[in-house]
Amino acid sequence: MIVLILNDLHVGASRKAGTTPASQAALTEHIHQHFEALINATDEDHIVINGDLFDGFEVPGTDLIRTFSVIDRWFMKGRQAQHLTLIAGNHDYNPRGDKVSSFHLLAHFLKVRRGMSVDVIDHTRGFSRVADRVWAIPHMPNQDLFDIELSRAMADRGDILLLHANYDNNFAVESDHSLNVSREIAGQLVDRGWTLIFGHEHQVR
Fold first, then answer.
1. Helix or strand or coil: residue 156?
2. 123 closest CA partner among 104, 107, 140
C-alpha cells in the first residue's frame, strides 16, 4: 500500500501580529483550500497526518467541522482499503488532562463514523506501527518519555520512522512542548536501518 504523509497543516491558524481581520480570514481560507486540494488530489488509499493537523490545542468549531467534512468526503470515494492515521503533534497535547483537544475530538468523531479505518497514535501509545514498512513516535509529554520511545525504536528494525520533533536542536531539549532528536541518536537509528522523516520542523535542512 502506498502511503501519503502530510504534516504541519496547522488548520485554524490564528496570527495576531501584522494582520487585519481580512488578512486573517484570507489565511484561514487559504489553509483550508490547501488541505482540501491535497486530500482531493491523492490517489493513495492510506493518508498519514504526522502531527499538527490543527494549529492549536483548541481551534474554532468551524475549522474542526470543515476539516471533518473534507476527510469524510475522502472516505466516500468508497475504496475498501482506505485508511487514515492521525499522529499527535505538539499542538495536540496538553499536560493538563481536564480538556479534550480539537485533534482528539476530530479523531473521536471520525472513529465513530469510520471505525477501524481510522487509527490514532498519541502519547498513550508511543512507538507504533503505521503500515507495513512505516512506524511512528508521536509527540510525548516530555523529553524523557520521548527518549524511551526512541530507545524502543532503537531495539527494533524497520524502514521508515515518522517523528514529530526537532533535529539536533539543543534549545528544544529543555522544552517539553518541542522535543528533540540529537544528532547522535539520529545516527544510531539510521545505523539500525531506519529512514527518519521529521514533522514539526518547518524549514528544510
1. coil
2. 140
Which three three-digit cell numbers place residue 187?
A: 545516527
CA angle, corner 141, sides to 136 and 142, nearest 5?
100
Q: Give pLDDT tens digits for 95-153.
A: 776 789 999 999 999 999 999 999 999 999 999 999 988 999 999 999 999 999 999 99
Whole-angstrom distance, CA of residue 113 vs CA of residue 10: 23
pTM: 0.90
Q: What is the pLDDT of residues 53-105, one digit of tens each?
A: 999 999 999 999 999 999 999 999 877 789 999 999 998 887 776 789 999 99
C-alpha cell at 100: 479534550
20 or 189, higher pLDDT: 189
Nine cell digits for residue 123: 502519547
Cα atoms found within 13 Å of the Cα of residue 84, Cβ hemisphere only: 24
User: Residue 2 and residue 106: Cα distance in Å, rounded?
Assistant: 24
Whether 10 and 55 have beta carbons less than 8 Å apart is answered as yes
Reading the block at residue 73, the C-alpha cell is: 468526503
Amino acid letter, 1: M
CB–CB of 162/5 below 8 Å? yes
Bridge partners (DSSP) of residue 197 are: 162
Cell of 151: 530507545
Say how many CA atoms lie within 13 Å of 94 toward its Cβ. Answer: 12
